[in-house]
């Protein structure tokens, strides 16, 4: 008799964004006359850039000819894309990363969960609190967290690293030493950035303890300040302790096109085994590559035209972030994030929980955000708005919120 | 200190096709003057059909406009595609499958491995021998097989179901009752098909024992005979014991475009838990959907033009299969498969192992096939050729082999 993976039973409620979608759909059905503005989920709104569209068109045309057709691609991804990444994302920032350390995938979300498979079952996992739920949920599903403790509101075996106003939403080194450390900077959901010095402390800590940092750099394109590192490999010693995940979703609007990558340096060895080789084996056995046409689209992101167009695209979202941030400040809210990140993290009014604030915004002014509690216990009392809406909707949402 | 997943150390050698690629590359470098014909890996050679290209072009154009742009898609896949699948793949064959039981993915290879995650660690896995290596390797990586036993040439805890000339390459019900049973028909690598009556026996067996059949139907488009079922859901009772995986790779040439799906019926419940709901949770948490443009391409596969064009495309590969099959028979080989499947399974000459035959074909006539031993112990003495080459290459390969 088949048994099921009992760890799924330890998951808390639905995946956050499914729950939000459910509440919004229910409200929309009850009030079809209301125009809802969505600043909740981190989905982009601007169309793909012309350079990306051109690359897709060329690649689609190739696929329709006997000479140009491409079937299964190279297991790690096409070299043209990996080489562009090495040069543009790493070489230009002085990071030592080579093409055979890059694994093209269909997105960072898949990679941040799947990467756990190459590690032993008993590794202790650390996450920020609040945190992108996927790190926690995939750890639960893999049986690495133990049970959810209703009294403490946390998983018994998970190390939570509080991100608070006091520490500027950059966690302190944890008391219990974790084996796997999820870090995401610029941060989702708080919008906080980490300085190079602070990140260097984490790298040194991981190297001292033999831990591995799983560094989610999906929002690096939004970094505005000079002193903020775009990659963990800007820190010295990161090649012996860090795996970095990147996405094309937020820098190039690929949320519906699906492309990302993971970097596993060759120096990353544990128990005498190369983690790069383990991931190569996992990637080659359980995955079959991103579509050729999408990899060509990814290549276009690094072209001269692509870079210029996407700079423009990101500046629209950065301006949204400014509008949200300053609008909220004007309206008397306490606000974080939104400078080096597309997320604004606001404090809910005193006495209002984050889900209450969610319902208020939805029901009174028809604006959808994300309740901080959905990101963890330390997210309670906060609320996330994203800068990925259209400029018109973003401005209108802020006007509505100011009337609240 | 991080520990690694020790199960990876139990994997045997490289993934089969990586090893083949290595040998072919080495030969090619040493003999650059030779033209190598590849009938090894199951990759298609015909370009995407015009209806598919049109759909891609339309979808790419949409993605370049503010109105047509699509970001994150629905978690299970777009309804337009799931509804087309329900109607064309299942409804027309009298199979009761609904759109909310279909999960669109980036290919069957990913799904056949990932599906294991929703099951308990201790489930006993059964595979055919010979077998598509991914079922075995993903079971090893998940720690479900125990160690590889050099004396027996098999994994201690894996149930092997021999597929031999004697049983027509359709396995007998196993002695030890497995929990998870991988079946693939039409079969890779043997090219064998299963009759509806024989498949019904498996369904009844699984229902009697509470086992779950993981049915890989990636090659159903090649079925030529009336009595061969295209889906396991043609058997009565399959909805309480079977998960079916399908691919667009072989019926529509999507090997480089990446699209597939998995069906998990709502009646599939174990330990009081719906497997459909578990898979929905896994899919929503660890995956972010196939690209919108690729899902539109998939929809076009079911259009009137698409169906006509793809019937033509498949008939080219079917004709290749006939050429290989009859050519080999003429040359005195014993040959199986190639009637309801794109794979031909030939017996290697007496006294020649399958890797020896691989090297002979490569070195003497520059034809690449796949050694049966790479698919399992019972694959020794056999060799797989695929019908996915171009007609010209296929004919020339057979002329060369006849001169061997």
TrEMBL record, chains A, B:
Highest taxon of the lineage: Bacteria
Names of the cofactor(s): pyridoxal 5'-phosphate
GO terms classed as biological process: lysine biosynthetic process via diaminopimelate, diaminopimelate-aminotransferase pathway
Pfam families, alphabetized: Aminotran_1_2 (PF00155)
Catalytic activity: (2S,6S)-2,6-diaminopimelate + 2-oxoglutarate = (S)-2,3,4,5-tetrahydrodipicolinate + L-glutamate + H2O + H(+)
Annotated positions binding pyridoxal 5'-phosphate: 72, 108-109, 132, 188, 219, 247-249, 258, 288
Keyword match Flavoprotein: no
Assigned EC number: 2.6.1.83
N6-(pyridoxal phosphate)lysine carried by residues: 250
Keywords: Aminotransferase, Pyridoxal phosphate, Transferase
Top-level EC class: transferase
Pathway as given in its UniProt record: Amino-acid biosynthesis; L-lysine biosynthesis via DAP pathway; LL-2,6-diaminopimelate from (S)-tetrahydrodipicolinate (aminotransferase route): step 1/1
Family, per entry: Belongs to the class-I pyridoxal-phosphate-dependent aminotransferase family. LL-diaminopimelate aminotransferase subfamily.
Subunit structure, as described in the record: Homodimer.
Record-given protein name: LL-diaminopimelate aminotransferase
The species this protein was found in: Candidatus Eisenbergiella merdigallinarum
């Amino acid at each position: 008799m088949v048994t099921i993976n009992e760890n799924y039973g330890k998951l808390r409620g639905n995946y956050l964004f499914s729950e939000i979608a459910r509440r919004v759909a229910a409200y929309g059905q009850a009030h079809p006359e209301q125009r809802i503005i969505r600043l909740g989920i981190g989905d982009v709104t601007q169309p793909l850039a012309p350079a990306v569209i051109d690359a897709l068109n060329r690649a689609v045309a190739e696929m329709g000819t006997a000479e140009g057709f491409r079937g299964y691609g190279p297991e790690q991804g096409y070299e043209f894309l990996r080489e562009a990444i090495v040069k543009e994302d790493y070489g230009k920032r002085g990071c030592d990363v080579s093409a055979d350390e890059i694994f093209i995938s269909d997105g960072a979300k898949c990679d941040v969960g799947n990467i756990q498979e190459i590690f032993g079952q008993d590794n202790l996992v650390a996450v920020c609190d609040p945190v992108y739920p996927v790190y926690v949920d995939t750890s639960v599903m893999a049986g690495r967290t133990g049970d959810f403790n209703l009294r403490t509101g946390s998983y018994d075996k998970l190390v939570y690293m509080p991100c608070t106003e006091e520490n500027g939403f950059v966690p302190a080194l944890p008391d219990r030493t974790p084996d796997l450390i999820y870090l995401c900077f610029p941060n989702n959901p708080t919008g906080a950035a980490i300085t190079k010095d602070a990140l260097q402390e984490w790298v040194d800590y991981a190297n001292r303890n033999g831990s591995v940092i799983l560094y989610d750099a999906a929002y690096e394109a939004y970094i505005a300040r000079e002193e903020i590192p775009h990659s963990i490999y800007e820190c010295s010693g990161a090649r012996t302790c860090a795996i970095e995940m990147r996405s094309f979703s937020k820098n190039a609007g690929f949320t519906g096109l699906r492309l990302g990558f993971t970097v596993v340096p060759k120096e990353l060895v544990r128990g005498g085994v190369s983690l790069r080789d383990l991931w190569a084996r996992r990637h080659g056995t359980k995955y079959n590559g991103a579509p050729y046409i999408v990899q060509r689209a990814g290549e276009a992101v690094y072209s001269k035209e692509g870079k210029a167009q996407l700079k423009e695209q990101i500046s629209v979202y950065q301006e949204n972030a400014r509008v949200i941030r300053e609008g909220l400040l004007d309206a008397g809210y306490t606000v974080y994030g939104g400078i080096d990140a597309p997320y604004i993290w606001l404090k809910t009014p005193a006495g209002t929980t984050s889900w209450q604030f969610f319902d208020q915004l939805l029901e009174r002014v028809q604006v959808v955000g994300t309740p901080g509690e959905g990101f963890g216990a330390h997210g309670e009392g906060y609320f996330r708005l994203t800068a990925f809406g259209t400029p018109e909707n973003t401005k209108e949402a802020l006007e509505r919120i100011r009337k609240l």
